[in-house]
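Database export, one record per block. Field names are fixed; values are copied verbatim from the stored entry.
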Amino acid sequence: MSDTGAWAIVLAAGASTRFGSPKQRVLLEPVLGRVRRSSVDGVVVVLGAHALEVSAPFVHCPDWERGPGASLRCGLQALPEQAEAAVVVLGDGPNLNPEAIDRVIATWREDKAEVVAATYAGVRLHPVLLTRSAWKRVPDEGARTLDAVLVSCDDLGPPGDVDFADEV
């Protein structure tokens, strides 16, 4: 890992009701493997609805039902003081490319933007990078509502978003 000052937060707190069982048991570890191949300094997983064994430091978010922003705020509070920025990824995005994480970090370093988001075919998805100055502005709906500098990741393919068991 390089000295980027950026830590990853993997959101994995949801109930997985459409999936039929805790999808985090199937999808989380592969996502963590992809995050670890990026240039982040560390990773924190946010859990909520399900207790899981995780190969990374984690925090349990008691307010996870309020929305992804509540889970994200729990993760942000768990980051160490030296974290200058958080790179947010979803625990159910099995096709996440580590290079997408590195691109949003590089754009943050170059542009000094408070919020940076990857796009795929013009659609804003994850990863999303938030600097400390943006952390207090995260609403319950999540970082999606915050204006961002957009980084094209069309050549990498979207991270995916698995909702149903037959999509795995």
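Remark 1: The beta strands are 6-12, 43-47, 58-60, 85-90, 115-120, 123-131, 149-152.
Remark 2: The mean pLDDT is 87.
End of record.
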